Amino acid sequence: MAAISSGQREFAPDLVRAVATVLLVMLHGLMIQAPSFGPSWWALASLTALAKLCVPLFLLLNGYLMMRRPIADLGAFYRHRFGRILLPLVFATVLGVVVRQFGRDETLPAREFVRILLGFPAYYHLWFLLLMLPLTLATPWLQQLAAAMTPGTFRIFLWSFGLSLVWPTLSRVVDAYGIPDSYFAGVGYAAFLVIGGRLGRRPLGPRELAVCLWIFALIWIADIFGTRFLTTAPGERQETLLHFLRPQVVAQSVVAFLLLLHVGRAFPVQRFPRFCSSVRLVSRYSLGIYLLHAFVLDVVWSPRISPAMAGAGPAIHIPVAIVASLGLSVLIARLPLLRRAVT
What is the total count of domains within the chain? Predict the structure, then answer.
């Protein structure tokens, strides 16, 4: 197959990051459940089954971008990477405490502040930044692992990883109090980095493209109907099949990642400059959108703060959260001290 030039590849990572960012906001914006098993339930279930790919896509992209960059100076690498995590984490933690204390009228007890100081997230979505701390620490060793793998050992790695996730998944399907979803979480999230570092280096052939599309569609449909089967009452939050480390979610995330890279490389950037500029804008401020969207959603969900918006539904809440978070990120980026917190 023909080699991929740097010019062809430039748009692909931005497309993956932008799509993952939109899916992340969708995932949290779809928390409102449909009251009956009608068209609205099926629509929400279908979108949620797509939105669950957001975190795996972010991790796969991180692996894709970082696993093959030689680390010449370990100290400089850690200073740069931890700085890119800690500043946004501190910024969002302070903002989260303020929003909870004053925006949501919570009275935070002293033990909650102690929990936050000990590393517990101040807001539900900040767990991802905390996850990136140990993953960043392990990146040099994961990089060596990915580089040392032959195609044969990589296939063994994939099978071992997939089989290790089957047991907890089956136990949770059979029994709600089965093996916790975090049982293999540390190894699982690190595996995304290794997989991202190994895949996506060449374009998909026609047969590979067709296989990826079929896998993606079949898993999407299976997750929708599987969720319906496991849901005992309308309005119930049924997430058994939607956890980021379910075997089928991992498989669907990988093929979605490969498909997005394929589309990004083949996309006629010069013919659609406005669309590509919008994608790059979302990609550039994806960190800010991630940090701020949960606070924006809480505002539009609040009958006290925005009574007109509270009952509008996800079709309005999600676009508003994306646009508002993006706009706030652009404004915050103008402040020199906080620019790196949102870009």
Answer: 1
Per-residue pLDDT at 253 exceeds 60: yes
Whether residue 24 is contained in a domain is answered as yes
Evaluate whether residue 2 is within a structural domain: no
What single-letter amino acid sits at 265?
R
pLDDT tens sequence across 191-233 = 899 999 888 778 888 999 999 999 999 999 999 999 888 888 7
- Cα–Cα distance measured from residue 201 to residue 331, given in angstroms and rounded to the nearest whole number: 36
Could you tell me if residue 35 is inside a domain? Answer: no
- Domain of 52 in residue numbering reads as 8-28+40-342
Identity at 56, one-letter amino acid code: P
| Dist. CA 1–CA 7, nearest whole Å | 17
200: left (phi over 0), alpha (psi -120 to 50) or beta: left
Output the DSSP codes for 120-171.
--SSGGGHHHHHHHHHHHHHHHHHHHHHH--HHHHHHHHHHHHHHHHHHHHH
Query: Contact at 8 Å (CB) between 301 and 253?
Result: no
User: Is 278 inside any structural domain?
Assistant: yes
Asked if residue 227 lies in contact with residue 45, where contact means CB atoms within 8 angstroms, the answer is: yes
| CB-facing half-sphere around the CA of 316: CA atoms within 13 A | 10
pTM for the model = 0.89
**Residues 6+ positions from 43 with CB-CB distance below 8 Å:** 34
Looking at per-residue confidence, does 298 or 110 come out higher?
A: 298
Helices 74-98 and 286-301 sit at what angle, rounded to 10 degrees?
A: 10
- Taking residue 128's Cβ as centre, other Cβ atoms within 10 Å add up to 17
Is the four-CA dihedral 25, 132, 57, 229 of positive or negative sign?
A: negative
- How far is it, in rounded angstroms, from Cα 47 to Cα 96? 27
Measured distance CA(193)–CA(188) in Å, rounded: 9
